[in-house]
Inverse folding.
């Protein structure tokens, strides 16, 4: 049996205003760079999103999962790290799990994306979890990530993002 896996959604597939609005709701900004230009602060290199202080760096060909992941990093890190942020988020293992969990929740804030599509894109790109897929991890193995986000005031008990940065 052959599985048809569509390519990962890119920023170009979404309405820019929706993405920018999500980023602004957190008091952050996005720098949309010209096609083929370098992406400052990109850990994996273009077309993956980059981090510079309070700004997400991206191009139209940046995968949505990458932008949401880097956005979640900025949200989850403390203010001291955020002030010096350049490329590497330098979080703990549990913070990285929380970033992935929040990234899935944030996908629901983008009407053209949603968690189901994002989880497929994360699997396609190569995110790896103990249980195999992003969905299995999210539904059966991510209680620690969920608890971390709640304890830091980033989501509520109903898993709704609270649109604030970790202090």
């Amino acid at each position: 049996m052959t599985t048809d896996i569509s390519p990962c959604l890119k920023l170009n597939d979404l309405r820019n205003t929706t993405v920018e609005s999500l980023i602004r709701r957190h008091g952050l900004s996005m720098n949309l760079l010209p096609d083929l230009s370098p992406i400052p602060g990109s850990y994996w290199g273009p077309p993956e999103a980059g981090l510079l202080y309070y700004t997400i760096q991206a191009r139209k060909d940046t995968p949505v999962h990458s932008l949401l992941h880097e956005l979640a990093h900025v949200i989850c890190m403390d203010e001291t790290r955020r002030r010096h942020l350049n490329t590497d988020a330098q979080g703990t293992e549990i913070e990285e799990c929380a970033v992935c969990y929040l990234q899935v929740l944030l996908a629901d804030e983008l009407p053209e994306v949603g968690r189901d599509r994002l989880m497929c894109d994360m699997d396609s790109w190569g995110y790896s979890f103990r249980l195999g897929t992003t969905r299995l991890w999210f539904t059966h193995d991510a209680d620690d990530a969920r608890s971390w986000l709640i304890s830091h005031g980033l989501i509520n008990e109903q898993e709704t993002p609270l649109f604030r940065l970790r202090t």
